[in-house]
């Protein structure tokens, strides 16, 4: 597709009651293209995670439209969304969100299992993704045996193996030292350029500015080009 | 590596302490229910074992009699009326009387004395360890049940004892005639029972009836009920039920057992609910992550349900093993415990249903998981 992968138009999210509303996102409008890394940056409490949840189809906006791959999804109900998430969106989390009872390889296999990839293909695909993040030797390890950087690479491998056009990363460098953090951002950048992924990174880490294609600044729920 | 990845099983075995606590709770509940119901059924068997092993279709008792062990006597000539009823093949008289036996070294014990017809053996012991049933015909011969040893001491054939100041001779030892009253049981001839207990002279306690082949039991029973207008007439099953109901409800035994079984069930259910719920809470972020990765709600519920069922199945089989040990110990003390396959099947289903019900509470919590939970640091 030639148009934007993600298109957000006039999106607002209001929490709380009518008497005491709290606006987390106010009238956000932007688009993200395939092959680029966009960073949404801003201080804590500015609404970054809320907009990421909306982009990830985990939260419905109060107002406005969200289109993913040209599909208007704001009105989709909960029964339609899981399939859209599986096929369109990969997540990378600040706290890695690995399954503590599963090995590195199994954590990656989960994405394929949800997509019902047959058993003859899944292990090969998972190992390819682990190879991409240089974790093949750790494939039988459990999350408790990994460093923060390794955990984040498992999380990325999980997103790679899902092979979704969009990858949403929430503070991917927050729990990592600066060197490892930048390596992770570079890895995401490679994914965007080599595999034409649309990567959206939410962060308040100003060091990543130089490593992304575009910065959107967010403050008090209002988003604008940085 | 296994694929598909068994998240439920992996989660269970990953947190071994929680898993162990859950299994202890479930198996404790299983053992408590199996043993309590088994002991209850064993006691119920004890209440009616003589009725069950007596080859009679109908039992005639004094009016308003509701059990085997505490029956009033009635004139033995009333047997003649029963014998004359069409459809009756034969009748036998049977005595069950409380008596007193002196024990070696002084003191005495209340005993249940059963006086039966030694020629036919109807109403007599059905499993002899030593001696012969017919030997009770000779010189106040009595047969003691081996379960009486703890109260009467070890008795051997040829030993003499006194029953209400009259000497009796041990002529045999039977097995399996333990009474729920815990009183030792002595079998003797009908006449000896009357001789030893003179206040029932010319009286019987039961008239046993065998119906002629091809006759309808209910019709004969109704005919007998009309003729035996001063007595109660039961079918064999009816008298077994009446006896069991008496012991279950009139003595409070049923409530006691029911309460213990309920406690076992509640304890098991609470432990299972608590552990499954806390495990769900602990994995809430993982369930949220699964949903973020595109898992349907039913996938998450499936994992919780599978965990609950695995807990139930493994806990049940551990409970079975513990139950086996308990049963071996219990029966080793001479007590009766009856655990039919239906009990195991029923308890298995109850255990699984409890686990499923417990998991539903967790499912409800998982449904309410905040989608943004996955982003929390």
How would you portray this structure in words?
The complex is a heterodimer of chains A (226) and B (377). In chain A, helix 3 (104-114) crosses helix 4, helix 3 (104-114) runs parallel beside helix 5 (148-162) and helix 5 (148-162) runs parallel beside helix 6 (178-195). Helix content of chain A is 31%, strand content 26%. Chain A has six helices and ten strands, in the order βββαββαβαααβαβββ. The model of chain B has no long low-confidence stretch (mean pLDDT 90). Chain A binds chain B through residues 49-50, 52-53, 56, 58-59, 78, 82-87, 89, 91, 93-95, 97, 99-103, 105-106, 109-111, 113-115, 119, 122-123, 140, 158, 162, 170-171, 174-175, and chain B through 1-5, 7, 10-11, 13-15, 285-286, 288-297, 299, 371-372, 374-377.
Largest sheet of chain A: 6 strands, mixed
Q: Let me know the CATH homologous superfamily of chain A.
A: P-loop containing nucleotide triphosphate hydrolases
Q: Provide mean pLDDT of chain A, rounded.
A: 91
Rg of chain B, Cα atoms, Å: 29 Å
Beta-strand residue percentage of chain B: 15-25%
CATH top level of chain A?
A: Alpha Beta
């Amino acid at each position: 597709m030639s148009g934007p992968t993600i298109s957000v138009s006039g999106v607002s999210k209001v929490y709380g009651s009518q008497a005491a509303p709290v606006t987390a996102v106010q009238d956000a409008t932007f688009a993200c293209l395939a092959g680029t890394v966009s960073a949404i940056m801003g201080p804590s409490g500015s609404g970054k995670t809320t907009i990421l949840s909306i982009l990830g189809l985990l939260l419905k906006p109060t107002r406005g439209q969200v289109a993913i791959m040209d599909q208007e999804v704001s009105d989709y109900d909960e029964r339609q969304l899981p399939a859209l998430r599986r096929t369109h969106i990969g997540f990378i989390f600040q706290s890695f969100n690995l399954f503590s009872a599963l090995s590195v390889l199994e954590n990656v296999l989960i994405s394929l299992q949800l997509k019902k990839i047959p058993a003859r293909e899944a292990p090969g695909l998972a190992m390819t993704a682990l190879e991409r993040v240089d974790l093949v030797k750790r494939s039988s390890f459990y999350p408790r045996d990994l460093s923060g950087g390794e955990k984040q690479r498992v999380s990325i491998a999980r997103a790679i193996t899902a092979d979704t056009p969009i990858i949403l990363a929430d503070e991917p460098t927050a729990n990592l030292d600066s060197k490892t953090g930048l390596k992770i951002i570079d890895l995401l950048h490679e994914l965007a350029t080599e595999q034409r992924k649309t990567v959206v990174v939410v962060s308040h880490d100003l060091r990543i500015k130089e490593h992304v294609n575009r910065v959107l600044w967010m403050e008090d729920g209002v988003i604008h080009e940085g | 590596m296994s694929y598909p990845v068994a998240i439920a099983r992996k989660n269970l075995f990953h947190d071994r302490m929680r898993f162990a606590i859950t299994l202890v709770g479930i198996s404790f509940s299983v053992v408590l229910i199996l043993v309590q119901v088994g002991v209850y059924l064993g006691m119920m068997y004890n209440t009616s074992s003589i009725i069950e092993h007596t080859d009679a279709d109908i039992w005639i008792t004094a009016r308003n009699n509701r059990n085997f062990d505490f029956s009033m006597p009635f004139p033995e000539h009333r047997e003649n009326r029963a014998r004359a009823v069409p459809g009756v093949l034969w009748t036998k008289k049977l005595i069950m009387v409380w008596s007193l036996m002196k024990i070696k070294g002084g003191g005495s014990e209340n005993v249940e004395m059963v006086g039966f017809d030694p020629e036919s053996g109807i109403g007599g012991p059905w499993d002899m360890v030593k001696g012969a049933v017919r030997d009770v015909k000779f010189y106040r011969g009595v047969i003691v049940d081996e379960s009486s040893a703890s109260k009467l001491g070890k008795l051997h054939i040829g030993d003499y004892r006194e029953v209400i100041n009259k000497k009796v001779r041990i002529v045999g030892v039977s097995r399996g005639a333990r009474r729920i009253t815990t009183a030792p049981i002595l079998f003797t001839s009908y006449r000896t029972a009357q001789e030893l207990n003179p206040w029932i002279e010319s009286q019987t306690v039961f008239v046993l009836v065998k119906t002629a082949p091809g006759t309808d039991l209910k019709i004969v029973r109704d005919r007998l009920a009309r003729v035996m207008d001063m007595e109660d007439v039961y079918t064999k099953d009816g008298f077994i039920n009446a006896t069991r109901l008496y012991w279950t409800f009139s003595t409070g035994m049923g409530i006691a057992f029911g309460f213990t079984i309920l406690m076992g069930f509640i304890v098991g259910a609470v432990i299972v609910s608590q552990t499954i719920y806390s495990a769900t809470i602990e994995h809430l972020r993982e369930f949220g992550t699964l949903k973020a990765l595109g898992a349907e709600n039913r996938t998450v519920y499936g994992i919780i349900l599978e965990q609950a069922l695995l807990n139930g199945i493994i806990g049940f089989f551990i409970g079975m093993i513990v139950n086996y040990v308990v049963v071996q110990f219990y029966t080793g003390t001479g007590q009766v415990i009856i655990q039919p396959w239906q009990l195991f099947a029923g308890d298995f289903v109850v255990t699984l249903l409890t686990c499923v019900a417990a998991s539903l509470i967790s499912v409800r919590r998982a449904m309410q998981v905040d989608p943004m939970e996955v982003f929390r640091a």
